[in-house]
């Protein structure tokens, strides 16, 4: 029998090596160094001298979006590669369909010889009958590993062990890698970001401030400390902060000392894309590590960022008002926008953001109010509150307790009623769905009608689930009222020591302020301004304290008296 004539080699022999974390647990034989050594010897033995390594170290075989593999495909498409050699089929990949595509179609269509050394596969020797079965076994192995990893992560995550790397501001403890400790340098930056937010600065303004101060962005900071972290590393300017980075830091509950697991998930072991998980599916463990931000401060920031998209003021108009995001129209309840007079830059004012005069909105009047007038009115009211506190702290605390307890009891009763209705309806929907399924199975209900009604019941069931979770949260949060009253009194005492109002103090004290349209004419012009305080709502100051409504000129020859009581019902 004559020996088989060898085909003359033209082009590169690609020696492809891959190792993932899962493969690394099998044995040392799968190491990149071992694969290189094996492939090099085999290529030399087969007379394939023009070799080039393509390596993917730390990449899963369940998808083919790997840099080394993609570079090899690019070289194949350019006609540079004549043969591809791997240790075994699992190194090429663990996806049965995709591996079959490359070995049965892609490589043969481009006249590329494929060799899997340990599986004794060589496309020059004809089609391998065992290859499809090996591909299926490789995929089953990947599926089994994925199940084990998911199960392990689920156990660890439900036990309170953080599954994600520590956020900017924390680092792993040198003594216990499962614990987070504060990184003092980064934590100071986090605190400054929260402080600037409470001072009324928007995300873009905060980012510009950090860039001006030459503060390194988180990725550049981690790289400077030699900490390996995933994510994009393409930012050329290490000080160029993005508003999205600031936004993410402001929303990170972990800064309160919490661990939150299962924020995201992947749909299958083949698809590694992370999908946002519903909040009710999170596992939240509070006060696990030392907090960087007080919980009350974090909650203030969340309330502030949820209500508005803050924009940085134009430099020529001066600083943003400390009352921005606090003033609302008393009639349509839309937010009041802050403006600067185009002629006299010293005059700043607010108008309804939905008024028909300036913005073609629905509110018929502007609800115009001067910024300096608002500041005077609020200062006067807080001084009267401070007088009450100083005169009889016990009576002041009792007044707040009675007010909040009465409102809390009313709110609790309403929430309990709503919760009971939602639970009852949820049970009813479940029974209706079961009956519908039985009727469809017995032929009483057509498949088309079953699909329409089942979809309707499923949508309602999900809505009820969210509503029940929200109502239960509201009832659980009722205990915060006592702490809220103490925070309110503490903020009043702080005001007594301050010379002027600041944005953090206002957000500690005030929930919102309703501004109504001016009434009357001439010297009898009045404007109602009602202040609603955090945790306690509107506080009615006893008539024993003298009331001195503030009166100011809004423009030349026009004066307005500001009234701070709600309108009589």
Helix content: 40-55%
Instruction: Provide the domain count.
Output: 4
Strand content: 5-15%
**3D shape:** elongated
Helix-and-strand structural type: alpha/beta
Low-confidence parts, pLDDT < 50 over ≥5 residues? Answer: 1-7
Mean pLDDT reading: 81
Adjacency order of strands in the biggest sheet = 2-1-3-4-5
Number of strands: 19
What does this structure look like?
With 569 residues, this protein is α/β, with parallel strands linked by helices. The radius of gyration is 34 Å and the shape is elongated. It has helices spanning 32-45, 67-77, 89-92, 96-109, 131-158, 184-198, 203-212, 218-224, 243-250, 295-307, 371-391, 393-441, 447-476, 480-496, 503-509; strands spanning 12-19, 51-57, 81-86, 113-116, 121-122, 170-172, 180-182, 259-261, 264-265, 275-276, 283-285, 327-329, 336-340, 348-352, 369-370, 510-515, 526-533, 551-555, 558-563. It folds into 4 domains: 12-150, Resolvase, N-terminal catalytic domain (Rossmann fold, 3-Layer(aba) Sandwich), CATH 3.40.50.1390; 177-307, Hect, E3 ligase catalytic domain fold (Alpha-Beta Complex); 313-407 and 481-569, no CATH class; 408-480. Helix 4 (96-109) crosses helix 5 and helix 11 packs across helix 14. Strand 1 (12-19), helix 1 (32-45) and strand 2 (51-57) form a beta-alpha-beta unit. Helix content is 44%, strand content 15%.
């Amino acid at each position: 029998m004559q020996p088989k004539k060898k085909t003359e080699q033209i082009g590169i022999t690609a020696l492809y090596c891959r190792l993932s974390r899962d493969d690394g647990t099998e044995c040392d034989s799968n190491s990149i160094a071992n694969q290189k050594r094996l492939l090099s010897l085999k290529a030399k033995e087969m007379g394939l001298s023009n070799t080039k390594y393509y390596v993917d170290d730390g990449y899963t075989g369940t998808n083919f979006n790997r840099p080394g593999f993609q570079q090899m495909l690019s070289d194949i498409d350019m006609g540079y590669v004549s043969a591809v050699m791997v240790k075994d089929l699992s190194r090429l990949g663990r996806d049965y369909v995709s591996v079959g595509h490359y070995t049965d179609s892609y490589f043969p269509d481009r006249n590329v010889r494929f060799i899997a050394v340990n599986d004794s596969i060589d496309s020059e020797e004809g089609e391998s009958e065992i290859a499809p079965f090996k591909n299926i076994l490789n995929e089953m192995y990947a599926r089994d590993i994925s199940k084990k990893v998911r199960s392990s992560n689920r156990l660890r995550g439900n036990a309170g062990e953080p599954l994600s790397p520590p956020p900017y501001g924390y680092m792993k403890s040198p003594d216990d890698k499962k614990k987070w400790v504060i990184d003092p340098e980064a934590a100071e930056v986090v605190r400054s970001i929260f402080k600037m937010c409470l001072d009324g600065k928007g995300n873009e303004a905060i980012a510009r401030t950090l860039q001006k101060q030459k503060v390194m962005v988180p990725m550049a900071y981690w790289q400077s400390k030699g900490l390996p972290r995933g994510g994009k590393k393409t930012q050329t300017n290490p000080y160029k902060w993005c508003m999205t980075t600031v936004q993410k830091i402001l929303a990170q509950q972990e800064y309160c000392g919490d661990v939150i697991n299962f924020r995201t998930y992947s749909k299958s072991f083949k698809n590694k894309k992370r999908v946002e998980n519903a909040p009710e599916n999170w596992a939240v463990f509070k006060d696990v590590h030392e907090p960087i931000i007080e919980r009350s401060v974090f909650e203030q920031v969340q309330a502030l960022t949820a209500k508005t998209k803050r924009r940085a003021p134009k430099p020529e108009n001066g600083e943003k008002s400390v009352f921005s995001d606090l003033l609302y129209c008393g009639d349509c309840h839309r937010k009041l926008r802050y403006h600067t007079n185009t002629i006299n830059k010293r005059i700043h004012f607010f108008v309804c953001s939905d008024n028909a005069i300036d913005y073609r909105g629905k509110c018929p009047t502007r609800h115009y109010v001067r910024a300096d007038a608002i500041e005077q009115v609020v200062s006067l009211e807080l001084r009267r509150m401070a007088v009450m506190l100083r005169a009889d702290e016990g009576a002041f605390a009792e007044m707040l307790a009675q007010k909040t307890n009465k409102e809390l009891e009313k709110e609790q009763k309403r929430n309990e009623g709503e919760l009971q209705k939602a639970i009852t309806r949820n049970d009813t929907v479940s029974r209706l769905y079961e009956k519908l399924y039985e009727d469809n199975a017995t032929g009483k209900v057509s498949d088309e009608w079953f699909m329409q009604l089942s979809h309707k019941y499923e949508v309602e069931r999900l809505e009820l689930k969210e509503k029940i979770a929200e109502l239960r949260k509201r009832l659980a949060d009722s205990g915060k009222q006592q702490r809220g009253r103490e925070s309110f009194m503490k903020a009043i005492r702080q005001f007594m020591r301050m010379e002027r109002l600041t944005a953090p103090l206002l957000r500690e004290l005030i929930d919102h302020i309703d501004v109504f349209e001016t009434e009357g004419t001439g010297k009898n012009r009045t404007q109602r301004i009602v202040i609603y305080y955090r945790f306690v709502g509107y506080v009615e100051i006893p008539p024993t304290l003298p009331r001195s409504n503030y009166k100011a000129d809004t423009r030349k020859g026009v004066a307005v008296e500001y009234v701070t009581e709600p309108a009589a019902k």
